[in-house]
């Protein structure tokens, strides 16, 4: 084996490719214990181990960094013991401790700067390297992800072979043709399944969501851009007595994050996450969350609350910010008796208090009081650092609602993609990539709902091109 980079289109079987490369290496005599695979999620790592040998090291990059520092993959503790960026920097300083006969990297288009810096060095310490990614599926810029880092690896790694997986086993011909024409991917999709259907719907924003819901077929995923839109659709579905499944990232679920933060406050929680969740629960303005955006890795405990309130320690606030953060701390101190508690009854009691004692300021969350048992399970999982990144409500329904980001890596018979141009910057190239991910989830039918169009310069590479194309079809 040599050094390979593969550009893999959606539905082309990139996980199978990586698994086959690993298994081939083992058959050729490579010790499984010397094989490392970096995946984007823990679930993907476990899936890879099932397809390969139990002794390979498959993990997220942060768990691999922990391994380099401590000599073991520690899924339970790596998130709590180190800030994400710091653990990558520390692993980089100790990179010479790493040796591998094969290093496989999945979802390379999502690498951030610190991840890239570490990966680049680890590739130089591995005998063979396999890198798989798709530039068009890079949609995590909010985590620092940028497809340019995948591009840089081409020149960083000596004698690297560039190839592609262009056959999609998921997407039928009509949808593949639409995707190739509109998105102009680096590697064009070649479908082997005939048929498929693309429908474009132009609807007023006032009824776009209800129309998409009522016209959706069985076995359909309704994909939207924001978690607010997910909950808006859930509320519409419940009011019209539709059974739906829905998915939102745990970090976007305010009650789960706020409650778990209070429970875990003695050992430390990430201030930015806590503030973001608390803004919806109540007590201060969401502008505080924006103000703290530059402090993503600051952890707080009960011992640091006074420092923050008094503008001492690591954080300095403006006068307005100090007032807001004081309101924030006053709010969480109302629940001080729950600090450090972890039993099911205690957590249930705290959730019940949040939902019924006047601290729900957005009625969209009221229906969640029916899901207390589910939320308690997630909070216990978070406390034990054993949590899937998504909060999933599975009602065994034929319709599922989620953001396009949450749909990545999944496939559905039918997809309804909602593009509300009021919610996004249509000139942002990443929004085009988000739409690309949504369109490539479907195995049969793709319905695109667009609320309005703009007369703009078509030469600009943006979502505008997709909207203009859609209007021409209509």
Describe the SSE topology.
Elements: E1 3-8, H1 14-27, E2 35-38, H2 42-51, E3 57-59, H3 61-70, H4 78-81, H5 84-93, E4 100-105, H6 113-124, E5 126-133, H7 147-156, E6 160-165, E7 167-172, H8 173-183, E8 190-193, E9 197-202, H9 208-215, E10 220-224, H10 227-239, E11 244-249, H11 254-263, E12 269-270, H12 271-281, H13 287-291, E13 299-300, H14 305-309, H15 319-333, H16 344-356, H17 372-383, E14 390-393, E15 399-403, H18 404-407, E16 412-419, H19 429-439, E17 442-450, H20 463-473
Helix pairs in contact: 3-5, 5-6, 11-12, 11-16, 11-17, 16-17
Describe this entry's structure for a reader.
With 474 residues, this protein is α/β, with parallel strands linked by helices. Helices cover 42% and strands 19% of the residues. It is built from 20 helices and 17 strands. It has helices at residues 14-27, 42-51, 61-70, 78-81, 84-93, 113-124, 147-156, 173-183, 208-215, 227-239, 254-263, 271-281, 287-291, 305-309, 319-333, 344-356, 372-383, 404-407, 429-439, 463-473; strands at 3-8, 35-38, 57-59, 100-105, 126-133, 160-165, 167-172, 190-193, 197-202, 220-224, 244-249, 269-270, 299-300, 390-393, 399-403, 412-419, 442-450. The longest helix has 15 residues, at 319-333. It is globular and about 60 Å long. The N and C termini lie far apart (50 Å). The model is unreliable at 75-83, 283-297, 358-366 and 454-461 (pLDDT under 50).
């Amino acid at each position: 084996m040599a050094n390979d980079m593969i550009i893999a289109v959606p539905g082309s079987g990139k996980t199978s490719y990586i698994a086959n490369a690993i298994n081939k290496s083992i058959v050729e005599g490579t010790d499984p214990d010397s094989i490392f695979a970096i995946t984007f999620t823990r679930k993907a790592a476990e899936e890879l181990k099932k397809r390969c040998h139990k002794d390979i090291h498959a993990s997220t990059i942060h768990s691999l960094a922990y391994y380099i520092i401590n000599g073991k993959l520690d899924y339970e503790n790596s998130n709590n013991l180190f800030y994400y960026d710091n653990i990558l920097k520390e692993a980089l300083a100790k990179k010479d401790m790493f040796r591998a006969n094969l290093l496989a990297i999945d979802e390379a288009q999502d690498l951030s700067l610190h991840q890239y810096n570490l990966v680049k060095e680890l590739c130089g310490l591995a005998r063979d390297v396999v890198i798989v990614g798709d530039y068009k599926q890079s949609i995590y810029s909010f985590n620092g992800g940028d497809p340019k880092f995948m591009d840089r690896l081409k020149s960083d790694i000596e004698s690297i072979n560039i190839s592609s997986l262009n056959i999609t086993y998921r997407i039928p011909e009509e949808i593949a043709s639409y995707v190739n024409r509109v998105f102009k991917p680096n590697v064009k999709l070649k479908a082997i399944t005939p048929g498929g259907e693309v429908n474009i719907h132009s609807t007023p924003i006032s009824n776009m969501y209800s129309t998409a819901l009522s016209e959706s077929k069985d076995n359909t995923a309704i994909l939207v851009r924001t978690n607010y839109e997910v909950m808006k659709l859930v509320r519409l579905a419940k009011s019209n007595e539709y059974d739906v499944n829905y998915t939102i990232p745990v970090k976007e679920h305010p009650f789960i994050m706020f409650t778990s933060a209070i429970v875990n406050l003695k050992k430390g929680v990430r201030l930015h996450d806590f503030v973001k969740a608390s803004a919806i629960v109540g007590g201060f303005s969401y502008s505080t969350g924006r103000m703290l955006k530059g402090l993503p890795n600051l952890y707080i405990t009960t011992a640091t609350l006074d420092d923050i309130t008094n503008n001492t320690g690591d954080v300095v606030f403006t006068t307005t910010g100090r007032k807001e953060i004081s309101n924030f701390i006053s709010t969480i101190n109302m629940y001080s008796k729950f600090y450090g508690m972890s039993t099911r009854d205690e957590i249930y009691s705290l959730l019940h208090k949040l939902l019924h004692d006047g601290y729900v300021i957005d009625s969209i969350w009221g229906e969640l009081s029916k899901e207390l048992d589910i939320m308690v399970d997630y909070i216990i999982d978070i406390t034990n650092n054993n949590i899937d990144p998504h909060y999933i409500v599975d009602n065994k329904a034929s319709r599922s609602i989620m953001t396009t980001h949450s749909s990545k890596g999944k496939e559905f018979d039918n997809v309804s993609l909602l593009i509300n141009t009021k919610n996004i910057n249509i000139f942002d190239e990443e929004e085009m990539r988000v739409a690309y991910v949504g369109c490539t989830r479907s195995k049969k039918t793709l319905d695109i709902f667009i609320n309005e169009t703009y007369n703009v310069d078509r030469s600009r590479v943006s979502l505008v091109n997709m909207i203009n194309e859609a209007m021409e079809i209509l």
